[in-house]
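User: I want to check something. If I give you two sequences, will you return the structure for each one separately, not as a complex?

Assistant: Yes, each is folded on its own. Here is the first sequence with its structure:
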Amino acid sequence: MGLRDLAYGVYERRLERSLVPAAVPHHVGVILDGNRRWARASGEQVSDGHRRGAAKIEEFLGWCEEVGVGVVTLWLLSTDNLARPAEELAELLRIIEGTVTALAATRRWRIHPVGALDLLPAETARLLKEAEAATAAVDGIVVNVAIGYGGRREITDAVRALLHEHALRGTSIESLAEVVQIEHIAEHLYTKGQPDPDLVIRTSGEQRLSGFLLWQSAHSEFYFCEAMWPAFRKVDFLRALRSYADRERRYGS
């Protein structure tokens, strides 16, 4: 271990000691960005970047357990990603399938797929549903795996589900328009019943949401980290938590 590693170890422990449990976010959303750029910068194949990024997930969830985070939403595949070249997409889906299956096998976390599963290959959708069923009774962090996810698609699906529900009741569009409230749409989101994210982290230096949890993040705090996801360290996570704890949250202003 070099001097730099020792220094980071000391800094990491200092950050950990400074955390106040009451100031730890309950729900953390993460945009896992930078796998491809990390691979190119490292002289690796794109698929190697995706594998390194996938390998980071279990370690990250362990950090969340240590500090008391209750819900984590991981954006693994967007609806836009579904338009990637067929060979790359097929490999990425295999990596995601293996990752989610492995997370479920630990029986440490409760897996909940969020996204338009109907856009995914049947085998991928089946494995995601199996992971959810296998961990339904697990008393651990709720891990939302956002796969085939897009914020606009989620809101569209929520409104569509709301319309279908009221159509079955015989409610007219005019009557529904008179009574529909924010909570009626929220009840049909992929994350229904869960608290909104307190903190959203995006790696790789990009400073935009790109459609991630558009509805749920209205009052979230955002933290943009320069590190690519495969190189994301515990000290980076702790810095995000410290930044969150130092902020005065002003809802609606």
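And separately, the second sequence with its own structure:
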Amino acid sequence: MPKLKRFSEWRPHPWHGLDVGPDPPKLVHAYIEICPFDLVKYELDKESGYIRVDRPQRTSSQPPTLYGFIPQTFCGENVRKLMSGTKVGDGDPLDVCVVSERPILRSDLIVTARVVGGLPMIDGGEADDKIIAVLENDPIWFKANDLTDLPSVLIDRLKHYFLTYKIIPGVHTDVSIGDPYNRDHAEKVVRAAMDDYLLEYHNV
């Protein structure tokens, strides 16, 4: 009897098997792990490609946007060089927050998103950028081309979420976020993460 293939051989791996996007670094694909108002931190299991429960949130912090990553990106040395005060990239795919006017209340899906800016987050000395993008065909945000086209309160909520989502009572967290950056710098970060991916997974 022939040996059955693993499911991951039939289903493209969200990190390694999906395209980075139709016109990167401007227009990218985002694989969504977490939806707005989720009180559980979901994360891609890197080996299988399935969504895993990482942890229930210890606080009331909730993501104000869709949250996931850009396929075929990797936060390595090229990403680190773009953020002062960091020692290394975090070794994960590049995180992305996607703004959508209509609520999308499920994860494990792909959206096409236009990069408009980002947040320079440092987590324990690691560069952990959070790219901010808008849903490409969104009827409200389709004209947004830069971070200044989004409400400042939304950026504040994103900063608050990332500064609090790892809080464990009684445990110190070494997380900081600098001033938000614009589309031009965000595209440089996406390009650097694409280059890091090629270095990590293709130059072996």
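Because they were folded independently, the notes below concern the second chain alone. Helices lie at 7-10, 77-81, 152-164, 183-201. The chain is about 20% helix and 25% strand.
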